[in-house]
Amino acid sequence: YFALVNHVEPEGQYLFVVDNNGSLKAMKLWSGSIAYGYFEADDVTASNDTIKLSSLDNAYTIAADGTVYKITDSKNRYVWHDRTFTTISVSATGSSKGSWTITPNNDGTFRIAFTDNYYIQYSTKFKSYGCYSNAQGIMPKLYMKVDKNATAIVNVKADSRQDYNGNIYTIQGRLVGKDVSTLAPGLYIKD
How many CB atoms lie within 10 A of CB 138? Predict the structure, then answer.
C-alpha cells in the first residue's frame, strides 16, 4: 500500500496524487507512442491516508542525487521536462537531462520542479498532468510505498567496533556519498 507523506525519503516509490474537489487523481504511467505528453490520471481511493493498488504501474521512483532528485517510472524511464513545453517527457537515457527539486508546501502538496523551474501540476481544465512555469492547476501530494511486511527494530545493541569509513547509505543500502551536507533531508545509515 501507499501512505501519505509530508517529506521525501532519499529513495522510494511514490504515487503523485491530487485532490480535485474530493476526487483523487493519481498520475498514470506514460503510455503514449512518443516520449512526451500530458500524463493522464487514474481515479484512486484513500482510506486513513493510505491507497491500495493492485499494480505498481503508476508508481514513480524518486532517488536523491545530492540535494536534487531523479525520477523514474515503473518502466525505469527517466521523467524530465523539455525546455518551455508544458508536457512531461520520459527517456531511457534521461539521467543527463536534468534533475528535480522537491519542496513540501504548507497544504501537504509538493512543488516538484525541474532544472528549468517548470513544475508538475494537474490541470483541471485538461484533466491531465503537465509541467508549467506558473500556477496552472493543482500540485500533487505524495504517497510512498510501504512494505506491509516491514517490522520495527528492537533491542539494538551498540557494536564494539570503532573503525569508521565515512560512507553514508540510504535505508535501502545504496551508497550516496560521504558528505552529509550534500544530501537531501531524510534517514540515512552512516558507516
Answer: 18
